[in-house]
Structures are given as C-alpha cells and as structure tokens.
Amino acid sequence: MGSCRARPATSSSARRRPASRARARALFVRQRRWIETSPAHLASCSCIRLLLRRSNAKLGTPLFMPPSPILVVGCGHSGTSIMLAMLAEHSCIYGVQGETNFLRRRRPRLRMASFYFHAFIAGKRHWAEKTPKHVHHIADMLAFAPSTKFVCMVRDGRDVALSIKRRTGSFEEGCRRWVSDNDAWAPYARHPNFRVVQYERLVTDPRREMEGLCAFLDLPFETGVLHPENTKKNWYTRTAAAQSREHELRRNQQINKPLFDDSGRWRKEISDDELNQFDTLASQTMERLGYSAASSTARG
Questions:
Q1: 175, exposed or middle or buried, with CB in 10 Å at 0-12, 13-18, 19+?
Q2: Which of 13, 79, 94, 163 is geometrically suited to a Cys-Cys bond with 124, CB 3.0 to 4.6 A?
C-alpha cells in the first residue's frame, strides 16, 4: 500500500518564496542590463560603492561629490536642452544624456555617483545634468551636495505655453506649468549657487551670456560652448517612449544645430482668447521675471 504519511504543512511565506526569487532575479537582470549599457560600464559598480563608502554617506547627510555638480533646471521648452548641449562642449564638463529624473527616483546618491564616474571616464572635472522638473527639488539637491551649481533657464511664457500646446494640445496646461515651475525657484533667486539665464538673451548675445555663466561656474570661457553642433549628440532617441518619440527626435535635432533665435513666435501664432487666458493666469509671474505685459497690445 502506498504511504499514508501526511505532507508537512506549507506556510504561506514558503509558497511565496519562488515568486520572490523570480522577482529578485528579474531585478538583477534589469540592473545588470543597465550597467552593461551604460557608457564604459560605469567603471564598474564597485567604483561607485567605493565612492559612497568613502563619503560615509547616510540618508540626510551631504554626499562627497567633488567638484561641484551642475544642474540645468527650469520649465520645459525654455531652452534647457540647448543649454546642456552648450555646456557639454566645455572641456571640463560632461553632459549627462537624456533626462534622468534622478532626484525623483530611488537611490539618487548612487545615480549621482554614476554621473561622477561617467565624467571621470570622459576626462572631465564636472558633470551637468538636465531635468526641468528638478526645479521642484532644489532643496533636496542642496542637501545631497551643497556645492551644486544651478543654471535656471527662463523664457517668455507665451512662447513656452504655445510650445507645450503643440506637444500636448492644451494651452492652459502650458500656462499653469510655466507659472508653477518658475514660481518654484523664486526662493532661491538670490542663492549664491543659483543663476538665471534668459533664453532671449542667450540666443541674441550668446557670447556675453556664456562668459558670465562660465565665470559663475568658476571655469574659463571657451568658444566651443557657443557651438553645440560641434559634437554629434544622440541624447534623446534611445529611450523615448512610443507616444513621445516624435518630440524626442525633434529635440535631438535641435541640440545638433547651430544656436538660433526661436523667440517671439507667439506674436504670430497666439489667439486673442489664449492671450487673455495667459494674462489671467500668468501676469504676476511675467512681471516678476521682467517680461512685458501679456495683453494684446504687446503684439506690435
């Protein structure tokens, strides 16, 4: 007769164990793929762990990250991509590809360490990263790395709102986003590590603006920063989602072109209703940033 021995009871945790192992394995595979597809393999993860150990960093304490990181922030569609492309032409600055959103994700210290080693591998002293939404996380970055230099791009909100409308279909969304993002950095306007660059001044007198910016970054001015087209960049096409692929491709084309003046398009494209709506939502922010009135009389 067959054995009548009862099977040992199986706990719920034991039943879940294979699934947990599968999830852990999948996470390991994803992490390994990220490491292997990063430039120069991040000089191996052991280098990053070494930096974190030497900094003796704990949550809530500053991260040892010499020299000063550079963050390009501001409302999207304000010239942040162009600014990063120009900075990346400097012999001392490594431009981080794409928008990493590292301050809005887990383990921002590890990601910052990876930027540092990318720069090290490229022979650069500084790294510069551009995620416009980091304008809402300035305090977090200063807590991680107090020496961080912030370059904040500002552009006429009428041009920005129309640009966002071309992407999303909503002019009101563009207005509200422009106001929210530019109000977020207002408390830091006088911070010694914070510099505002106006898009309109950058495209009309790039040498003067970049000379001032290089001085702010404690770097010598180099004429190469005036020519973002000098180095072929493929920053925004490798990871673009299908629904935003067209926008990413267009943005990748822009950073590979010579600097050009795309300001003031709103005068020909904006409707009277949109102009009145913008005036209602954004007049105070426009005044604070030094732009002319948003009413229809400003079309001339």
A1: buried
A2: 94
Among 130, 132, 106, 142, CA closest to 34: 106
Question: Residue 95, Cβ neighbours under 10 Å: how many?
Answer: 27
| pLDDT digits 0-9 by tens, 152-166 | 999 999 999 999 999
The predicted model scores a pTM of: 0.76
Pair of tokens at residue 58: 């704990």
Q: What are phi and psi of 106, to 5 degrees?
A: -75, 150
Contact predicate 75/135, CB 8 Å = yes
Can you give the residue ranges of every domain in the chain?
67-158+184-260
| Topology classification of domain 67-158+184-260 | Rossmann fold (3.40.50)
Three-class SS of the chain? CCCCCCCCCCCHHHHHHHHHHHHHHHHHHHHHHHHHHCHHHHHCHHHHHHHHHHHCCCCCCCCCCCCCCEEEEECCCCCHHHHHHHHCCCCCEEECCCCCCHHHCCCHHHHHHHHHHHHHHCCCCEEEEECHHHHHCHHHHHHHCCCCEEEEEECCHHHHHHHHHHHHCCHHHHHHHHHHHHHHCHHHCCCCCEEEEEHHHHHHCHHHHHHHHHHHCCCCCCHHHHCHHHCCCCCCCCCCCHHHHHHHHHHHHHCCCCCCCCCCCHHHHCCHHHHHHHHHHHHHHHHHHCCCCCCHHHHC
- Comparing CA positions, the residue from 149, 135, 120 lying closest to residue 177 is 135
* Long-range contacts formed by 233-236: CB under 8 A, 24+ apart: 233/85, 233/88, 233/95, 233/97, 234/97, 235/81, 235/95, 235/97, 235/98, 236/81, 236/98
